[in-house]
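thought: user wants a sequence for this fold. calling inverse folding tool.
action: design(structure=
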């Protein structure tokens, strides 16, 4: 009753501003504010913030392990490989490689990157295949590996606008890929405000009624074509959302 009343008397943009303030003061990222981006994600994987498997090992979360989310994505990527000439792929933010392990066989060469040494060292032990190369990469600061296509799956949503902007700037200037697939958690309603800033950390912008849209300000990814290749409805923190994958032809 009280929430319903507040929605009627407080304008939506004011409610959103209040949520942003609460998020900055009390959100999960608050405890990470004095850490570097590398330290943030090392902490996430060392403590299992996104969840642990039956062996007690940290994972990349339910978005990488829930079949109703993963299978439509894998099928969409298979369709992309049928429609475009692709030999090499770069997985930017590979996490625990639960999704990448289902993709790498579609390519002659697969470079899987992450900022966390903890998760990369584990991946190297579990996935020792000639065609896979694991690299430690900070998307915002390091040179990006070259390939025909890059996958950035539910990664940017955890980064600050400053880091995303640096990443997009490199894509626009150096053009290391012909194609890039960006997967992001977005509010279910299409009239949300994109790209509201947040600190880098485990949470995402859906709690702020926002989401990352790379071709919108302030990022402005340069592209020739874009195609929505996969949309999966999902509930995040009690909020209805969609996990959307967009193929950009660069």
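)
observation: tool returned 250 residues.
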């Amino acid at each position: 009753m009280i929430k319903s009343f507040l929605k009627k008397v407080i304008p939506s943009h004011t409610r959103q501003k209040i949520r942003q303030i609460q998020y900055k003061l009390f959100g999960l990222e608050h405890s990470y504010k004095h850490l570097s981006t590398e330290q943030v994600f090392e902490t996430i994987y060392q403590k299992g913030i996104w969840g642990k498997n039956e062996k007690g090992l940290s994972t990349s979360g339910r978005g990488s392990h829930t079949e109703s989310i993963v299978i439509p994505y894998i099928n969409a990527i298979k369709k992309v490989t049928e429609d475009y000439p692709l030999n090499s792929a770069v997985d930017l933010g590979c996490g625990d490689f639960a999704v990448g392990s289902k993709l790498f066989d579609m390519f002659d060469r697969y470079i899987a990157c992450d900022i966390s040494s903890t998760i990369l060292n584990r991946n190297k032990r579990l996935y020792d295949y000639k065609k896979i190369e694991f690299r430690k990469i900070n998307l915002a600061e390091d040179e990006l590996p070259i390939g025909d296509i890059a996958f950035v799956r539910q990664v940017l949503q955890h980064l600050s606008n400053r880091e995303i902007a640096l990443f997009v700037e490199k894509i626009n200037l150096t053009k290391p890929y012909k194609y890039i697939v960006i997967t992001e958690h977005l509010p279910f309603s299409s009239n949300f405000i994109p790209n509201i800033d947040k600190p880098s950390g485990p949470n995402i912008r859906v709690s702020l009624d926002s989401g990352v849209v790379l071709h919108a300000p302030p990022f402005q990814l340069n592209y020739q074509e874009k195609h929505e290749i996969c949309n999966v409805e999902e509930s995040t923190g009690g909020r209805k959302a969609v996990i959307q994958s967009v193929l950009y032809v660069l």
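thought: summarizing for user.
answer: Here is the designed sequence. The domain at 2-249 is CATH 3.40.50.150 (Rossmann fold).
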